[in-house]
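pasting for ref
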Amino acid sequence: MTYSAQVLKEIDDGHLKKAYQLLAKALESDDDETLFNLAGELTALGLTDKAGELYRLLLKRYPDEDQLKTALAEIAIDDGDNDQALQYLNQVKPSSPAYVQALLVAADLYQTEGEVEVCESKLLEAYQQAPQEPAVLFACAEYYYLVGNFERAIPFYFALIQLGITNFSAVDLAGRLAMCYAQRGHYEQALGYFKQVAPTAMTSDLRFQTGMTQLHLKQFEQAGKTLRQLIEDDPQYTSAYEQLATVYQQEHKLDQALKTLQEGLGMDEYNEQLFVHAGQLASRLGNRKLAESYFAQAHQLAPDNVTVALAYSNYLLQAGQYQPNLELLKPLVNAEEVDPQVEWNMARSYYGLDKLKAAAPYFQAAAPLLKDDSQFLHDYAQWARAAGDLTTLKSVLQRYLQLEPTDSEMAELFDELN
């Protein structure tokens, strides 16, 4: 057994001190190829400081060996020394057999620095140099996947599968393709690839996305089965509770949907979205006390979340609680950028309290961004009619009837104005 082999054995047994003692003997006795392979093993084990020592020693012996430079560059990137990494990479010329690997390492470096355009250019150059190299195809695919450009990621993953590769660097490629197609809204193709994922690679995330895809395809029975199984195996995966509740809603099982959300809250009592969804369901089931409790808890957990506040606000409007709704929304009105829905709900509250003058500026502020929302225009017209603002009423009705030409009541009112 070589000293290098003994080093790895001692590391495997947890005897690092003895392993490092043997490493010194390996440097004296083992041949260079064995030392090179040992450096690779040490890198894989995360012992990059010792691997770096070996690579630097070998580089002194073989100063023209570019593979050593790319290996040292990778270690430098892991250590956060990007300047040192670039020094190594800049020594690798396009004529070198290690140039493609150097491009991949450079892409990794620029990605860590947030220079995504330079990263992409390095990857595409590597692809031009070696269009059939699996490591290049995978690097390109992963880059586009991670930046959310799923359309461009798909052909790279597909090219790997065409080469007979179904798993690369512990990543199931069918799963990646399925996720890409799902993100693009191509649910039939996505489901086909989800079914090809190896059972051992079917993570909770992939199972959740499988259920979501089935839900998009209105395969409610299958979606329910997938999500229930996920919850049974991974009860901490709280996103599954909300989507399973959505399945039950589609099946008109509102009591079961609410029970599912309550089970989810038992696992995650700080999930404001579960509280919001539970509040909406409780409201639909006529349990206003429970609904208000859930909305209030959601708002307490995320007081600055506009989506949560608006869900609570919509409930209060529906319940005719106009003054509490004004108190809820006033902090949001003072924000630097105000959501037009907030202004609309403020206007509706003042209108509900018969404070027409107070409602006016909120209707006016929301109008430019909600001019294509027929429900907003309907409310705005009702206010203008009650306030006696005939000029605004005529203008709003004209736009409303372009969107809702079959509303005979509003059409009759518009004709009377003319």
